[in-house]
Amino acid sequence: MKENEPRFVSLVSDTTFKYLWKNERTNSWIREIIEAKTNIDLNDYDLSDNEMNSGSNVKDYRTDITLSNKSDNIIIEMNNDYYDSAEIKGRQYLFRKAGYSFDSGEKFTEVRTCTLVMFNNYLKKGFEEQAVIDSWFGAHELGIKYSDIEMFEIFLPIFSNMCYHRSNKIDKRLRLFSCQSYEKMYNIVDEDDPNYFIIKELERLGMNDKFIDEYDYEFVQKKLMNSIKDEGYEAGKNDEKIEIARKSLEQNINISTICIITGLSIEEINRIKDSNF
Predict the structure, then answer these.
(1) In a domain? residue 215
(2) Domain's final residue, options 161, 181, 205
(3) Closest to 47 in 3D by CA, of 17, 12, 89
(4) Residue 19 falls within a domain, yes or no?
(5) Whole-number Å distance between alpha carbons of 148 and 9
(6) Considering only CA atoms, which of 26, 195, 57, 45 is closest in space to residue 117?
(7) How far apart are CA 267 and CA 262, in angstroms?
(8) Is 5 part of a structural domain of the chain?
(9) In whole angstroms, what is the distance from residue 37 CA to residue 134 CA?
(10) Shared domain check, 156 and 237
């Protein structure tokens, strides 16, 4: 990448997703996707909490967007990587939000419908050909549906295999989520395409140092969280940190950010760098 060229900013990043939601023009672009795939009209919803705590003492930033109106709550989650507990935690956030109808003990305050919408950048076993799953929590064999809790999963890789020019308006947007470079985006989008402005906005973010710092922090943090599974093996933890540092250097992430996330010193990072990664 040349010095004055923008860094590539992916649409499946939590940091990107939150920014686009808080920007008025790009918010409409995302909202229309959700409305088309879930039949939920989001016009009367307000942003009530982004980065909702999952219940731990430290805010873990796994819930991207939480919307509310007078009767409903909607959680919108971007899942870039799959790991065993990801979907379980997503459901736990949904149940916790639904449980807010109880102040304490058995004191019930109100019925609020709670919905989880997950953008998954992976395929689920057994559903490889289904672009969207509408999962409701009830007794399927009896035809019972609980109307106060619902979950939608949008599987982004399905749309990457669709022909862009033959797809409908919404599927064209979802096709862009799988692109890993601006070049690939421009190969399917020209200046007359209504999605062209999204690519230009991503390029603008790719030149914003503050945004890139947050974007890089997310990348390293996720690598650290997904790689280090057992905190009891210190040697293994250190090997994983070194590997994360190597991967981060390959992505041109600045050394100070790598130090903060991995806990390695500047000298250690430089040794990894000098060893040609």
Answers:
(1) yes
(2) 205
(3) 17
(4) yes
(5) 36
(6) 45
(7) 13
(8) no
(9) 9
(10) no
At residue 136's C-alpha, the angle toward residues 68 and 37, to 5°, is 65
Query: Rounded to whole angstroms, how far apart are CA atoms 126 and 155?
Result: 12
- Distance CA(261)–CA(257), nearest Å, equals 6
pLDDT tens for each residue of 171-224: 999 999 999 999 999 999 999 999 999 999 999 999 999 999 999 888 777 766
Is there a single domain that holds both residue 90 and residue 152? yes
Same domain membership, residue 245 and residue 146? no
Return d(Cα 39, Cα 128) in angstroms, integer: 22
Both 269 and 151 in a single domain?
A: no
Measuring CA to CA, which residue among 222, 208, 212 is closest to residue 61?
Answer: 222
Dmax over CA atoms of the chain, in Å, equals 64
CB neighbour list of residue 224: distance below 8 Å, 6 or more residues apart: 240, 241, 244, 261, 262
- pLDDT tens sequence across 38-51: 999 998 898 876 55
SS3 149: strand
Q: What angle do CA 68, 43, 177 make, to 5 degrees?
A: 90
Indicate the number of domains in the chain.
Answer: 2
Q: Please give the residue range of the domain that contains residue 186.
A: 14-205
- Where is the domain boundary, 205, 228, 252? 205
The percent of the chain in helix, strand and coil, each rounded to the nearest 5, is 45, 15, 35
Give domain status of residue 8, yes or no: no
Q: What's the pLDDT score for residue 2?
A: 60
Judge whether 245 and 216 are in contact, CB under 8 Å.
no
On the 0-12 / 13-18 / 19+ scale of CB atoms within 10 A, 226 is middle
